[in-house]
Specification:
The protein is built from nine helices and eleven strands. It is of the alpha+beta class and 336 residues long. The protein has a domain at 103-335: Roll (Nuclear Transport Factor 2, Chain: A), CATH 3.10.450.50. Strands 2, 3, 4, 5, 6, 7, 8 and 9 form an eight-stranded mixed beta sheet that branches. Strands 1-11-10 form a three-stranded antiparallel beta sheet, with helices on one face. The longest helix is centred in the N-terminal third of the chain and has 40 residues, at 56-95. 20% of the residues are buried. This is BZIP domain-containing protein. Residues 1-66 are annotated as: Disordered. Residues 33-45 have a biased composition (Low complexity).
């Protein structure tokens, strides 16, 4: 057989040399691997392919689930914020020291206006001393308390202190006497003191709660217009009421109290006990409650000379002829 004239190959055919690829740079910095990049791209592509496999229904469920979780998270955050706001408000009421129109005043050592107000409520925490009907001899401790109360008012209140729509220490004592006589178990608790200033005179706010127990005497002296409604009267007798009270003390340049405003929220107390607005309005409609929460008939305006502070003689006991269980008031008028 004739052999064609071909030059036999020295060996198997080899492809041209591929360029050498270095995994690192000349300075030794490692470069990203092409294989890893390809693998990442492949993974993303696979992920995209897998996501595309979700049906419209499944995607809708996933969206609604995420939406529900988002809304629940927001609601939980809102509730948490509400609790924090309530806590801040609670602390703010007791620790508030500034207000928009009332700059903070630093009290002088030993002459704190808050201490004056605190002493006032400490002395009158249970009203003025009272004694049982028929009792002639007044206990020594009650006489001592009466003297301390009168001494405080004469010493730390201006003789012509403005009290409600009237003025004078006599009017203030008269109201303390009526509140003490017309209620049983009177107790005054101050929540906190807020010290402010109306330049140049300080102002002290003292929100409080007045705890009292109703008796028939309470109805007769303050709410006589409902005596015909025995059913309503019986719902109140023996009940303890909590009167929310707002107190504001205005001090003068002489560091004495020149004005004392007080407001008793009778409506809130009655709504809490009676449970409805109708009976509450019936109680308040013709009640013997005047402006600034003064109860009973007001005293006549005292003459100017009677507003002067005088020496403190022994208190005079004023007996009130009432039914069994009624209480009498110790009149402090004789010490003024």
């Amino acid at each position: 057989m004739e052999i064609e004239g071909r030059v036999p190959a020295a060996g198997p055919s080899l492809p041209p040399l591929a360029p050498v690829r270095h995994t690192g740079s000349i300075d030794g910095t490692k470069q990203p691997s092409t294989t890893s990049a390809n693998a990442g791209a492949t993974g993303k592509s696979s992920s995209k392919k897998r996501s595309r496999r979700l049906s419209n229904s499944e995607r809708g469920k996933l969206y609604r689930s995420r939406r529900k979780n988002y809304v629940q998270a927001l609601e939980e955050q809102v509730e948490q914020l509400k609790k924090e706001v309530d806590q801040l408000n609670l602390h703010g009421r007791s620790q508030q020291q500034t207000a928009t129109a009332w700059p903070l005043v630093r009290q002088p050592i030993g002459g704190s206006f808050a201490s004056v107000v605190n002493e006032y409520f400490s002395l009158f925490k249970y009203g003025v001393p009272v004694a049982e009907q028929g009792s002639v001899n007044v206990p020594t401790d009650q006489l001592l308390l009466s003297s301390r109360q009168a001494g405080f008012l004469n010493g730390l209140m201006h003789p012509n202190v403005v009290f409600g729509s009237s003025y004078g220490i006599r009017e203030l004592l008269d109201q303390w006497q009526k509140y003490s006589l017309y209620h049983a178990g009177l107790k005054y608790e101050v929540k906190n003191l807020q010290i402010m200033a109306a330049d140049p005179n300080p102002v002290v706010l003292a929100p409080a709660t007045l705890y009292v127990r109703f008796t028939r005497r309470t109805i007769e002296k303050i709410f006589p217009h409902v005596l015909w409604n025995e059913a309503l009267v019986q719902r109140l007798i023996g009940k303890q009421l909590e009167y929310p009270v707002g107190n504001t003390f205005y001090f003068g340049d002489d560091n004495k109290i020149h004005r004392y405003d007080t407001y008793v929220d009778f409506v809130a107390a009655f709504v809490s006990v009676l449970g409805n607005v109708e009976d509450t309005m019936a109680m308040m409609e013709s009640a013997l409650i005047r402006q600034e929460s003064m109860i009973g008939d007001l005293l006549e305006e005292p003459p100017a000379e009677e507003t002067q502070a005088v020496e403190l003689p022994s208190p005079r006991v004023q007996l009130v002829d009432e039914g069994v269980g009624a209480r009498i008031g110790m009149s402090l008028q004789g010490i003024l």
